UniProtKB/TrEMBL annotation:
InterPro entries with a match to the protein in the record: Calcineurin-like_PHP (IPR004843), Metallo-depent_PP-like (IPR029052), PAPs-like (IPR039331), Purple_acid_Pase-like_N (IPR008963)
Keyword entries, A-Z: Signal
Protein name: Metallophosphoesterase
SUPFAM superfamilies: Metallo-dependent phosphatases, Purple acid phosphatase, N-terminal domain
Species of provenance: Zhouia spongiae
PANTHER family: ACID PHOSPHATASE RELATED, PURPLE ACID PHOSPHATASE
Domain Calcineurin-like phosphoesterase: 155-348
UniProt entry tagged with the keyword Magnesium: no
């Protein structure tokens, strides 16, 4: 059954790629305008569902539709007998296009099948809610990890810079690799323009390649802070715990710490037009980090891995780099950080510990062909290993802790 599901899904993706995802998408509309301005287009999904925050007992399913609707997820081990939809304060999150559904109380190490359903809302008058067409996606599946697993693996990409084809090229290298999740380590875009850019340049390639079945983390780089749609970006993703761009989580023997390194220049730089405040944001993260490393779940974990877009070294002496170094590097030194994984410089490299930093710094490359990389991290209780693969398939190097 699993094999057939996979075959059907690939066929579905090919079909939808040619029909739904190449130019037939609606212009980007604010949520409240979408309904009225999309009447000529048939009601439909703008993305396949994508997974976020998959744990042993829960997962978040997200998807976008082209018109306001009431949506839900149907899921189960053998059928679709469970329903999940999101609600707040007693109200279901309806009459929206961007959907975020939490599937709770899942069993560990279990494969679930799921599909998403949307019922268009044609009019929303008091005591008179009129529904239109109902659409249902194809079936997909995901498998929850083992609770307290002894191993973890992931692949890490960075600095794609609005080149959706790079996802296909780099994931072509990952076909033989095992990975529990994918990390997008910043600068997936040059700057944020609108929803359509997020869909076409990130969600379409990611869902076609892996994200319907394997979750990903979208870590912000300095380029995601730019552009008129930067303030809407966070809503398209799900972050663990406190819905911030900085967070931590444990998977297998690794405690991952994700930091948002912010912009690379001073907040006062004319490029930012007087509307950024990254010094304060990094200081807020430094306080959070000090608290985080004081917790027993951090100190008890075998490996501590930091993922941040701008590396604290090997990235010039611009303000962003130096502020990260000043705030975060002393904490890394004091708390036995096993590895820092970054991007930003567009110059890939594996930098072993030196007298300046006691931890290795792994920097992925990009965005030009010949300079793009995929980092594969895997860890068990014996070792933590990263391998960096260049886009021609050659292995740039490995680092083992
Ligand atoms: Fe960058």
């Amino acid at each position: 059954m699993m094999k057939n599901e996979r075959i059907d899904r690939r066929r579905f993706i090919r079909n939808t790629s040619s029909v739904m995802f190449t130019g037939a998408i609606l212009p980007v509309l604010p949520t409240d305008m979408a309904k009225s301005e999309s009447k000529e287009d048939s009601f439909g999904f703008l993305t396949l569902p994508y997974l976020q925050n998959l744990n042993h007992d829960m997962v978040v399913v997200m998807f976008i539709i082209n018109s306001n609707a009431h949506s839900w997820v149907e899921f189960g081990e053998n059928g679709f007998d469970n329903i999940a939809c999101s609600s707040r304060d007693g109200l279901v999150d309806a009459d929206i296009r961007l959907n975020k559904m939490i599937l709770k109380n899942l069993k560990p190490e279990t494969t679930y099948f799921y599909r998403v359903v949307s019922k268009q809302i044609l009019s929303f008058d008091p005591y008179d809610l009129k529904y239109g067409e109902k659409i249902t996606s194809e079936a997909f599946s995901f498998t929850t990890p083992k609770k307290d697993s002894g191993s973890v693996s992931c692949v890490i990409l960075n600095d794609i810079h609005d080149r959706p084809d790079s996802f296909y090229d780099l994931f072509g290298l990952a076909e033989q690799l095992k990975f529990d999740f994918v990390v997008l380590n910043g600068d997936m875009f040059d700057y944020q323009t609108d929803e359509r850019q997020i869909i076409d340049h990130l969600l379409v390639p990611c869902t076609n390649l892996f994200a319907t079945e394997t979750p990903f983390l979208m870590i912000r780089g300095n380029h995601e802070t730019r552009g008129k749609y930067a303030r809407q970006l966070k809503g398209y993703f799900t972050y663990p715990d406190h819905d911030e761009y900085y967070f931590s989580f444990r998977q297998g023997p690794v405690h991952f710490i994700v930091l948002d390194s912010g912009e690379d220049k001073e907040d006062e730089h004319p490029e930012y037009g007087g509307i950024v405040n990254f010094d304060e944001f990094r200081e807020e993260q430094a306080r959070w980090l000090e608290n985080e490393v004081s917790k027993s779940e951090f100190s008890d974990c075998k490996y501590k891995v930091v993922i941040m877009h701008i590396p604290p070294f090997y990235s010039g002496n611009g303000h962003g780099t130096m502020h990260c170094r000043k705030l975060f590097h002393p904490v890394f030194e004091r708390h036995n950080i096993a590895m820092v994984i970054s991007g930003h410089t567009h110059a890939y490299g594996i930098h072993p510990p030196t007298t300046e930093h006691s931890y290795p710094i792994i920097i992925g490359g990009g965005p030009q062909k010949g300079n793009r990389t995929l980092i594969h991290l895997k860890a068990n209780f014996e070792n933590l290993e990263t391998e960096m693969i260049k886009d021609d398939g050659s292995i740039i190097g490995r680092y083992t802790v």
